[in-house]
Amino acid sequence: MSNKYTIKDAFIKLGEFLSQFTTNGIVKKDNILNNDLFFDGFKHQIKLAKEHNGWFTENNILFALEGWSNLLTKNNLNQWLSGYNLNEVEAKKIAIIMAGNIPLVGFHDFLSVIITGHEVLVKQSSNDKHLLPFLAKYLEYVKPDLKGKITFTEDKLQDFDAVIATGSNNTARYFEYYFKNKPSIIRQNRNSVAVLTGDETEEQLSGLSEDIFRYYGLGCRNVSKLFVPKDYNFDGFFNAMYKWHPIIEEAKYANNYDYNKAVYLMSEFDMLENGFLMIKEDQSYASPIATVFYEYYDNLEQIQQKLNTDQDLIQCVVSKGLTKSDIKFGMTQKPQLWDYADNVNTIEFLLKI
C-alpha cells in the first residue's frame, strides 16, 4: 500500500468516512476510502458502545461523530494549524488519560498529538472504549507509517515523555502528584454557564435547551448554571425547554430525575420543575443530572467580575456579547478545533516539549 497521504490527509479521509454516520441516520456512501473494510465494523462498534454505556444513546454517538466529520476538513485543519511549524517536531511519546463522560471526548487530544508528529499512548475510560481504537485502525490503514505510533493500554502508563490527563478534581490532584516530573496538561471538573437578561429570543432559548440537554448534560461544555436578573420570569425558559420532554422516557435519565426530585422535596428546597427538568437556586456550578442551578444578579458588571474570578471553574459562557469569548446559544457542543478545553492551547504545549 502506498504512503501517498500525509497525516493531515489521513484525518481528512477519516472525516469523510465519518460523514456516513449522522443524526439523520447511517448511510453508506460511494467513493469513501477503505469503506468495504471499515463501514460495517464501525456500525458494530457504535452498537457495542451503546450497549456498554447507557448514556451513549445512538443519537448522542452520532451527534459526536457528525461533529467530528464537520471538523475534519482540509479548510478547518489548515486554519487551525496555519500558524505553527510542524516540520521540525522531535517526536516524543505523549500519554493521554481520557475521560468517558461523552462519546469520543478525548479525540481532540488524540488528534493534536498525532497531527503534531508525536507518538501517542492512550489510556481510555472504561465508559468510552469502543470507538477510538477502531478509528485509529482506520487512520493506520490510510497512512501505514502511523502503525506503531498509536498504542492503547489498560495497564499502568510507562515510558512516555509528557502527559495530557483529564479527570475529576480528586483524580487531578492525584495526577498532579503522580506526573509532577513530566510536562503535563491536567484538566479538572469544569462547568458551563449561561447569562440571561430576559431579552432572549425564543430561538436563543431553544438553542440553550441544546446546551443543557445534549449528552444529558454530562459534558463540561453543557450549561449547568444560569445567571438571571432579579424578577426573571422563567416561563419563556420552560417553554423553550419543552421540546426535550421525550428525554424523561429514557430510564437512566428518569431515575436521576426522580431521585434528585425526591432529595429536593425531602430537604424542602425551593425548586421549579416541568416534569423532566428542575431548576433550583444554588451557588454551585455543578448541578446533578436533570437539574439546572440558577443565581440572581443585580447588574452585568457584577456578573462579569464573578465570571472572571471563577474562570478556573468555567468552561463556556453562553451569553449575548457579555465577554469576548462567549459562545452563541445552542453552540456549546459544536466547538471548533481551536476551542481548547480549559483554554490551554494543546498544540503549543505539544510543540514545546
TrEMBL record:
Domain of life of the native organism:
Bacteria
The UniProt keyword set, sorted, is: NADP
SUPFAM superfamilies membership: ALDH-like (SSF53720)
Question: Would you tell me the protein name for this molecule?
Answer: Acyl-CoA reductase
Q: Which organism is this protein's natural source?
A: Mesoflavibacter profundi
